[in-house]
């Protein structure tokens, strides 16, 4: 069971870091660690206390208590109102002298710290008042170690998310005839495809056609896709809260030689990155090699790094393929899941981004979880 392995992994890390207890204090399904530990989305305020050893306790409102009947991996305490919640929280948490809370220590400095920072300032003040005898610390190190490297069960969920998004995007591109449709209509079709497959979008789907494809984070508009357009689609599915993220660039009708040459250069840059990804390699080195390959063409602008970590969020904790000082030092580890997404953008003309998801592997360097076309597809 995924939840059981995550709990055991978190407790091993806690004991090594000297953290006696971890408190997840959530409003309406707003802390992703809640789903990570419970395996369920809750729409009411609740709390989870994970001790370094022993069985965790979940404080659950009576509206959702029925979801936990028969659960043996948690002690479940049910409350009826806010006062009862406070009493239970004080009773369960006050026995721990030190408690890790979900806030980042460097929110303005680290690229993806928001992925682990869920506690509001007012909640922190309320907890200090309720638990005056407790010393609070950040759970940042715990969350990083828990989410950097995936368990085998998590890898299976990511693979499922990858297969779903590939199936949907390939189907929309090849079977639905996107010519004449608006960018918004194509984006809606992709996101509807996720929902009927028990997924949610892991981010807002990007569909960018013609000159809009030169804007990396374009917001889909009512522009109709026409013959001669380069169309860039960036989409991801979240399956059981594990994300996928792919980008595909195609041409509607006959591609120009410039379209083909830019696509070929971006694809070669991606292959360059894939060849060197393996445990122990610095993330910044992957980005540098990828940029060097992109620059050989001498056309287009590089506007973003070559990739980022995937997890509970589409931009999760871990080293990204970029040129910051941190990423020049951080190394890849066996079991990380990353995107590899080089792109070139010709302002006012078109852009090309090719993005696949990979599992960093001690045996094979990296294993492709998605497979973009070798050559520019014309439809």
Please describe what this structure looks like.
- The chain has helices at 2-17, 32-38, 82-93, 121-130, 140-148, 152-175, 183-195, 257-276, 283-295, 325-329, and strands spanning 21-26, 46-51, 57-61, 75-79, 98-101, 135-138, 200-201, 206-209, 230-235, 237-239, 242-243, 246-251, 337-340, 343-346, 350-353, 356-361, 365-368, 377-378.
- The two termini are 43 Å apart.
- Helices cover 34% and strands 20% of the residues.
- It folds into 2 domains: 2-147, Creatinase/prolidase N-terminal domain (Creatine Amidinohydrolase, Chain A, domain 1, 3-Layer(aba) Sandwich), CATH 3.40.350.10; 152-378, Creatinase/methionine aminopeptidase superfamily (Creatine Amidinohydrolase).
- The strands form 5 sheets. Strands 4-3-2-1-5-6 form a 6-stranded mixed sheet, sandwiched between helices.
- It has 10 helices and 18 strands.
- It is an alpha+beta fold.
Fourth-tier CATH superfamily name of the largest domain: Creatinase/methionine aminopeptidase superfamily
**How far is the N terminus from the C terminus?**
43 Å
Task: Assign an overall shape.
Answer: elongated
Uncertain spans, ≥5 residues at pLDDT below 50?
Answer: none
CATH class category name of the largest domain = Alpha Beta
Number of helices: 10
Overview features:
379 residues; alpha+beta; Creatine Amidinohydrolase, Chain A, domain 1; Creatine Amidinohydrolase; six-stranded mixed β-sheet; four-stranded mixed β-sheet; 18 strands; elongated
